[in-house]
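ESCALATION

Customer reports they have been waiting on this structure for their group meeting. Please prioritize. Original submission:
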Amino acid sequence: MASGTQPSEAARRASLVVISVGALGGMFPTLLRLAIGLSQEHIKPGDVDLSLLLAMVIFGVCGAIVAAIWGEVDLKKVFYLGIGLPSFLTVMTSSASTPPVQAQTPAQHVPQLSLTLPSSVLNSKPQIVFNSERGTTVVPFEPTVQVPPGATSFSVQSGRGNSGTIPLTSPKMTFRSQSDPWYSFKYAVGVNGAKPETLVPASP
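Update from on-call: job pushed to the front of the queue and completed.
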C-alpha cells in the first residue's frame, strides 16, 4: 500500500510546484514593471497599496489556472505559460482607445502663462502641451512659459499625473493634486495612462 500512496503523494507535490511556478509567472510582469517604475521614480512606495496586491493575487490565480489546465510539467514552460495570460490582459488594457480630444473653442490670446504645480509633480519632469488648430506644441515646464501663437488650450503632463484640457482664458493657473485610490490596481493591470495623481485647477 505504501508503494501505491508514494506516487500519489509525489504527483500532488509535483502539481503544487507547477501551480506555484504558474502563479509566480502570473505575477512576474507586474513585479517587473513595479521595479522599473520605482527605479525610475515614476511611482513612489507610498503609491503601492492593497489594490496592487489584489491585482497581483488575481494574476497569480490566473497564471496558476492556465498552468494547471495546460498540464505542462517543464517548469520553464510553466513559468512562460503563467506569464502569458496576464501579459495578454495587460496588452489589451494598455491598447484601449484614448479619450476623444475635446473640440477647440475660441479663446483670447494669452502671450504668457504662469503655472504653479504641486512639488510632487515638479520632480517628475512636467511638460505643457498647447493645442491649436495646427496641432500641438509641447514645451518643458517653467514657472512662466511663452504661449505659442494660435494656441487655444493647454494641459499639463508629467510622470506623476496629468491635467485635463484647459481653455487659455487666464494668464495664471494654480494646480493641486488628487490621489487616485485605485491607481495601484490600474497600474497592475496595465490600464493605459494610469498615474497616481490627477492635476486639478485650484485657482485661476
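Sent to customer with the following note: The radius of gyration is 24 Å.
Escalation resolved.
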